[in-house]
Structure formats: C-alpha cells, structure tokens
Amino acid sequence: MELTDLRHFHNVATSRSFARGARLSHVSPSAISKAVKKLENELDVALFERTTRSVRLTAAGAALLARCERIFAEVAALRAEVAHAGAAIAGPMHIAAMEVLSIELLPRAIAELVEHHPAVTPHAYEMVPSRMVELLREGAIDLGLTIGGVASKGVRVIPLGGSPGVLVCGPKHPLHARGRVCAADLREHASLVPRFLGLEHLPSLDQFPDTHWPRRVGATIELLQMGVRLAEAGRYLGYFPEISVRAQLADGRLRSLRGLPTREPFSLNALVRADEEPRASVRELVTLLTRIVQSATRHRRRAR
Fold first, then answer.
1. Among 10, 64, 91, 172, which residue is least crowded by beta carbons within 10 Å?
2. Domains, the chain
3. Phi, psi for residue 291 in degrees, rounded to 5
C-alpha cells in the first residue's frame, strides 16, 4: 500500500468527486480511478458507492478516511522530527586534522562548540590530506582540516582563511639576537624540514621557497610540535604558519626572523563531502574556525 494512493483516495473522499479529486492530486481522472481500484483490491473492500450523480463513502471507506487523517499527521510529524534532528547541533562528529590546525585552532573551536552544544561528541584524528579525502568519500569522517588542498572528486573545499609563514628560532640560536637572516645564513644554519614518511617525493610541507633560498636541512620531522620544541631549544631554524606558534612568539620562546621575501600565506581549509550538505554541528564548527582564523589575522595586523 503506497502513501500516494492513500492521498489520491483522501482527495476523492473529501471532495466527493473523482474529477475534483483528480484536480486536487494533479493527475488524470483515469489515474485516480486506478489508484482507488488498487486500494480496493488490496483491502478487498469497496470504498465508494458510485452512481451517475454522486460518490459516497462506504463504511469501509469512512474507516479508511479516518485512518488516513492519522497516517498523514504521523507523516507530517515524522518529517518535522527528522528536520529538527538534522538541524540539531548534537551527536558524534568525526574530524580529521593536520597538526597545524589541531595544536591551537581546533581545540579552541571544539571547546566553544561543546560549551554551547554539550550534546555534540567530537572525535578528532591526526591525518594526512590524502587520507582525509579517502575517508570523506567513504563517509567515515565528517570534516577534514588541512593546509592547502584543492577540490577533488567527491570533496569540497571551504576556505577558513590564511596564516603567514614565519621563520623562527629560539633564544639560544646564534641568529636570535640579530633578528634577521640572509641567504647565506640559511646555508650555514640548519633548518627543520617537515616531510611525511613515504612521501619524500613531495615538496616540504612548510611551503618554504627552497628554489630561491636554499637551506641546509638539519632534521626532518612529521610532528609539528616536535619541530617547534627543537626550534625553541635553539638547535634549528623553523618555518611555520604564524598561527601555530603564536603563543611561543608572544612569550619569547621563539623569535621571528626578518629578511625573507614576503611569501603567500598558508591557506587553511576545511574539506567536506561534495554530494551532501554538512550536518549542523559540522557547519557550526567550520563557522567557529573561520571566525578564530579571521580574528587571529586582525590581531596580527594590529600588532604590526
């Protein structure tokens, strides 16, 4: 028994006319007659008493009409309930993030999200962008957070903002007091270079202009936190998105070195599935992240 057939029957029963019922259902009179006949065959009862001048409900037809009212009310309530659930900021949310975003930005956004929406349960994972794309396509995660990244099949990119790169060193580094670098300094003093194991053929993840300013590689790292700590210790130069080392720059654990040509900022992006609208909780988290990134950008401009 199909809901459409019940609606056709309801329109005939309430209008007491197959012709008017057909107009209400936006179908032909023959189509609505077939729908009513199908119901009568399925229920094995006559629903209408038909004469050349009138259409009247049988007792079975009257019972079905009363049941239709309850069925349609349940359908309307179901739609409203599902729509409310889809709009509710609640439930589990699976987030994959590169460390650039998971150190500072993501914890701040999640903390604010769950403060206002405690029914949200975030699940966060460290992940490379290529794996994010795979899991988004499979539906295993709801959101990916990455530096760079472009739209690919099944995945949509939502820009969060940008963060300039900064060349930094710790207080014990020989260049700390000077506060500047030149091309020769980069060849003399060792730098940290972030690379993922097995992806050595890709450019370094810090987007450093190696072709114009060659540097001496002193260590390769995958974990951003490790690179920051090594730079703090004064052993290496590090090139990081400013937003990921803001706390260390503010309290003096790192110093930004001038002298490098101006570079394009790191692009911070959210990745979502392209074939469906993100859930309300995901949209809210993306909104919070965008606001935090833009606030950080304004703060840096004022500081300069």
1. 172
2. 3-87 (1.10.10.10), 91-163+267-303 (3.40.190.10), 165-264 (3.40.190.290)
3. -65, -40
